[in-house]
Amino acid sequence: MAIDSSDQTPSQPATPVAAILPTEHRMVTVLTSPTPVRTATLTIPLSRPTSPTPSKPTRPEKPTLRRDSLNRREALLRGQEGSRRRQRWENDRLLSNPHAIPPTASDWEVRPLYPRRHVPYEFASLYDHPKFPHKVAAIPNHQAGEKMPKELKVRMKKTRGAIGLLKSLEEEVRKFVLGEQDEVKAREEEEKDDVVDDESDEEIVFISRRAKQFQLKTEKVLFESPVSDPGASFGRWLVHSIATYYGLKSWSITTGNPAKRIAYVGLKNDPKNSALVVKGIPKPLWLML
């Protein structure tokens, strides 16, 4: 049986259908959508956490002072303020000198010890000129150098009263050498001044140079003592040492009855021309003691 819709009562009005806008639809979907789940990472430390200790006021740690510390050594070297040690320490380091300049890198360069003269290149060729004053090695006028023998110096220090003996022997040697020098000079002057007069009828006798040299005193007795004297050997040793220093030859002989030991000194012969050599006189030995 069909129900007629016209029989419905007019007291129930029909509900109107509302129109839904797009913006409202979006808000509804946002409000009705489920909330997203938040994720977080969990870290577990392997070591136990250190418990924070409350900060307490502590005194600063003093450095351990050793017995021979460098600070103590430096303090001892400096000394107290105003002391003589402190003054010397400051003077050594030029601390109170206003003109002191610290060393530079050029001060540590390796330089020659001899003075260097800067010669321009254009003047360097003048050094080869024959008139340029070149340095020539000085030729010594005696063979023996003016240096006391070490053995003689040691023995003279150990022997008391030997300086007087050395002085007397050396004075005789110096007189002998000086006399020979004067005679040689005088003979050289005579040879230059000798002029032969052809008009004179006097007999002329020529004497060779070798014969003139034999007229010189070529030897001299310097020390004489009996053979039995045990202390005379030191005097003869002094004679030989003095002769070596002055470039002379010396020898000893035994003569007489009773026997005596005599020490001689004489001039040496030049091996080139067999002439007697008379050298210069160096500084006395007894002045070097």
TrEMBL record:
Gene Ontology molecular function, alphabetical: nucleic acid binding
Domain R3H: 201-269
CDD domains: R3H
Compositional bias ranges of the Low complexity kind: 41-50
Comp. bias intervals (Basic and acidic residues): 58-90
Protein species of origin: Choiromyces venosus 120613-1
Protein name: R3H domain-containing protein
InterPro entries in UniProt: R3H-assoc_dom (IPR025952), R3H_dom (IPR001374), R3H_dom_sf (IPR036867), R3HDM4 (IPR039629)
Compositional bias segments (type: Polar residues): 1-14
Superkingdom in the source lineage: Eukaryota
Region of interest called Disordered, as start-end residue ranges on this chain: 1-20, 32-90
